[in-house]
Write a structure and sequence with these properties.
This protein is α/β, with parallel strands linked by helices. The protein folds into 2 domains: 130 residues, NADH Oxidase; 78 residues, 3-Layer(aba) Sandwich (NADH Oxidase), CATH 3.40.109. It has 6 helices and 8 strands. It has a 4-stranded antiparallel beta sheet. The longest helix has 20 residues. The termini are far apart.
Length: 226
């Protein structure tokens, strides 16, 4: 089974997990996916398994409502706008592939102990976030969403592929559910994607662009943070 619209629709940000070791085949697949992402986009994503301390007993974990998180992907990428966008794009691909494997996940930007994450961060790189992964112990409801007109220009004007892409981008997880992105369909048919500069803007834009391109079958020609 590959990523499809049912997988995207079923994905939720899950914070509570059952205390179960991830199946060996699923771990192998996640390692392969992170290796592919790193090789193709110059990233340094790293899968960490059976590690209790980053989300251990702390105010941060309690505040974020996380429980039994022992497996996660450390999202390490170049400390640039382009690096953040690529990290979001490739990380979300892995999030959805994980859902295909029967795993739940959650992008986490703040509510973990950065000093307890056992990963290598080379000069010029940055730990943007973690992606918690495992077998969920909850079934969260979907968050409220903005309207397509709030996040796009050209929606509903006859380009069905563009409309599908925007609809799917609105299903993407973003920091604090801000949906801080905008897709514009230009007169020549090109599509641009932008986000306002704020915390996690590049990461969120990359996540949204993956959803857009997957659903529309179109490539975004220009991405920027302003």
């Amino acid at each position: 089974m590959a990523i499809n619209f049912d997988v995207i629709a079923a994905r939720r940000s899950v914070r509570r997990y059952v205390p179960r070791t991830i199946d060996a085949e699923a771990v192998a697949r996640l390692r392969a996916l992170t290796a592919e992402a790193n090789a193709g986009a110059g990233l340094a994503l790293q899968l960490v398994t059976d590690e209790p301390d980053a989300f251990g007993k702390s105010f941060l974990a309690h505040y974020g409502h996380f429980k039994n998180v022992r497996n996660y992907i450390a999202v390490v990428a170049p400390d640039t706008d382009e690096g953040g966008i690529a990290a979001g794009y490739q990380g979300e691909r892995i999030v959805l592939e994980a859902k295909v494997l029967g795993l739940d996940s959650c992008w986490v930007g703040l509510t973990f102990k950065r000093g307890k994450v056992p990963v290598d961060i080379a000069p010029g790189m940055k730990l943007y976030a973690l992606i918690a992964v495992g077998y969920g112990a909850e079934s969260p409801k979907p968050h409220k969403s903005k309207r397509p007109a709030d996040v796009s220009e050209g929606y509903g004007e006859g380009n069905e592929a563009f409309d599908r892409g925007v609809d799917c981008a609105l299903m993407a997880p973003t920091a604090l559910n801000r949906q801080n992105f905008r897709f514009v369909l230009c007169r020549d048919g090109a599509v641009t994607a932008t986000a306002k500069r704020r915390a996690y803007a590049a990461l969120d834009l990359g996540i949204a662009v993956f959803h857009y391109e997957f659903a529309s079958g179109l490539k975004v020609s220009r991405l920027s943070i302003s």
